[in-house]
Amino acid sequence: MAGVAIDIGGHSIKAIAVKVGKHGVQVTGFAAVPTEEGAASLRPGGKPPKGAVCGLSGRDMNLRYSQLPPTPDWQLKNLMDLEIQDLAQQSGGSLSADYNLLPTFDAESGVDTVLLALARDEALARMTGVVTEAQGSVEAFTPNCIAIYNAYLKCGPVEPDAVVCLANVGHETIDLALVKGTDLLFARNLTGGGKALDDAIAAAFNVSPRKAETLKRDLVDLDPQSRGSYASGQSEKVTLAAGGSASEIVAAIQSSVAFCKAQTKIADLQLHKVLLSGGSARIKGIRGMLRETLRCPVELFDPFENLDLSALPPGDAEQLQQMRSEAVVALGLAVGSVDSTLYSLEILPAAVQKRRRFVQRTMFNIGAVVVGIVLLVLHAKAQKAAMEEASAARRKVASAYKQIQDVDQQAQDIVTKCLEDRAVVDHLAAQAVPLHGALRVMRAVTSSLPSQVWLTKVGVEMRGAGTQDKKPVIEIKGRGKELDGANVSNVLLEFSQQLKKNPLLVEAGAVPTIALPSTGDSTVEFTFTIEFGRKS
């Protein structure tokens, strides 16, 4: 991720471009111009500072601390909004603000400490105009004291459990951050800095501010070890003139430590180290002065030692080399804008607030509508596909149903034909069984018919109570005559016995019934009745 930041100081305007990746922070551009000349030529890396984060300090911003019981985020937001409204009414102008929680060091107190940063909208508009001169744009404003804290977290030599004072001493402002390990204890911004020494020198020697600044740079030596051994008498006079104002820097750090003790309830809070940055951090002897008064090590804070500067154009690299101390705030602003794990305190200008509200709300609604339309289109396509699939399935079912109907109709036709054929078969069977039986009877009778007997009539008919019970009955009539003295009745009796035993009739289930004559005449008539389908 890439970020751009601008630090608009009283003496110079610094802009820096960075890129944060898996290998750390890489500086890709740096530019600085005197504040009095304006920012029109400000081009870090040769590009306008678009979407830049600007630093806030001095009278442009106010930091306040509030201690509240632990509350939900929505309730905390409402409380902070009310406080901002009250402060805006008291100040008589519109304010922009942001807030964030500080670590809790007194768990028994049951309170949270909220750091609230406020800035006048007219100051934000003025600074936005400066960035616009460089054909850039402002994305947010962040306090300089938070910027040096983020620079320390991301690029500095963090010492666990050590209490470190980060002090950026600029031309007109002093930005302080007290840090324990990686936790921010206290942050503060003050007016003052190197300009206070210039004003004291100018008043003492009645010279112009520019001349006073030159005297400060060339002659001032604030190191207590230099007392009595200054390089020249002029150096001693200039140092004595600036000494009172220089003590204000010490007082700012000492008062900040006292305020931090009262706020965090850490009674034994002691400084382990002071890291200086800013243009005035290079005043000769200032570190010795702070070291003797604060009784702890005082070093220059140079986070660029741990960064990749290989991507800087030669001109940018040379300028950054000359202003490493002044560029610390800009670096912290840049890395804080691209690394979400760092401490966030961003004051948004009205235009950015509107744009973010539009993105977060209107664009969300538009996105929701677009998503809804896309879902409806996808749903319509799915429904269309489902309809087409259902129509294809319906056509397939209709075709199968038509085939089933055709098969059913064919089956019904076959059944009807079978019934018709069965009726014909039954009719033929009804006709065939009697005739077949008659044929069997005639064969059986003629095979054993005595010479004394002849047939006169053969009849076939169906007899029975119902249609299903009717059975074929064959009636044979004949005559017999006595020959050679044989009794006809005996002959007929013997003939009837032979018929009953005849295989042709036995296999067909025929039961012969012979009505024998009761007369004794030599010529008699007889009747044989043969019924098929039952056995005697």
Q: What structural class should be given to the helix and strand makeup?
A: alpha+beta
CATH top level of the largest domain is: Alpha Beta
Number of structural units classed as domains: 3
In the CATH hierarchy, the architecture of the largest domain is: 2-Layer Sandwich
Order of helices and strands: EEEEEHEEHEHEEEHHHEHEHHHEEHHEE
End-to-end C-alpha gap: 117 Å
Largest sheet: 5 strands, mixed
What is the tally of beta strands? 17
- Per DSSP, what share of the residues sits in E-state strands of 2 or more residues? 15-25%
- Shape by Cα distribution: rod-shaped
Question: The CATH topology of the largest domain, please?
Answer: Nucleotidyltransferase, domain 5
Summarize the model shown.
With 536 residues, this protein is an alpha+beta fold.
Characterise the protein shown here.
This protein is α+β, with helices and mostly antiparallel strands. It folds into 3 domains: 1-142 and 308-348, Nucleotidyltransferase, domain 5 (2-Layer Sandwich), CATH 3.30.420; 157-300, 2-Layer Sandwich (Nucleotidyltransferase, domain 5); 433-531, 2-Layer Sandwich (Alpha-Beta Plaits). The protein has 12 helices and 17 strands. The chain has a 5-stranded mixed β-sheet, sandwiched between helices. It has a 5-stranded mixed β-sheet with strand order 11-10-9-12-13, sandwiched between helices. Helix 4 (194-205) packs antiparallel against helix 6 (233-264) and helix 6 crosses helix 7 (286-294). The longest helix is centred in the last third of the chain and has 98 residues, at 350-447. The radius of gyration is 62 Å and the shape is rod-shaped. It starts with a strand and ends in a 5-residue tail after the last strand. The relative contact order is 0.10.
